[in-house]
Amino acid sequence: MNLYYRDIEIGARYTTPAHTITAEDIADFCRLTRDHHPLHTDAAFAKAAGFPTIIAHGLYGLALMEGLKTELRHYETSSIASLGWNNVRFVKPILAGDTVHVEMEFIAKRESSSRPAGVITEAVRLLDADGALLIDAEHISLIRMAPS
Fold first, then answer.
1. For all residues of the chain together, what is the average pLDDT?
2. CATH 3.40.50.261 is right for the domain spanning 5-144
3. Is the N or the C terminus of the chain less surrounded, counting Cβ atoms within 10 Å?
């Protein structure tokens, strides 16, 4: 499904496929970002800090949210740019071994004031397999009006 501005319906909700986060995923993010804090690399350190195992970076969770949304294929040819994330809250830690998915809802749309495109806002939530909220955020995107 490829959505253009005219196709966006406020209140429409979508759920992504699930993904299980591994210690290797977290290690890969450590390598990519150069953030090797022991909460993300050392299980004993993480346990001493009150977590059952290593935790994923909050920014890994946010990036994963975008990747999981991409699997819905909503914007294959209609996406122009991400305009940013608002009201990001890291509600609960993401643990190695968690299986997560994204629930998203279109909450606002308007025509762009600078070009022939639309600005859309999605409420985006990362949840674990039990439905517990891990990350809550809003994502703003610029998308094409429609093919000519």
1. 96
2. no
3. C
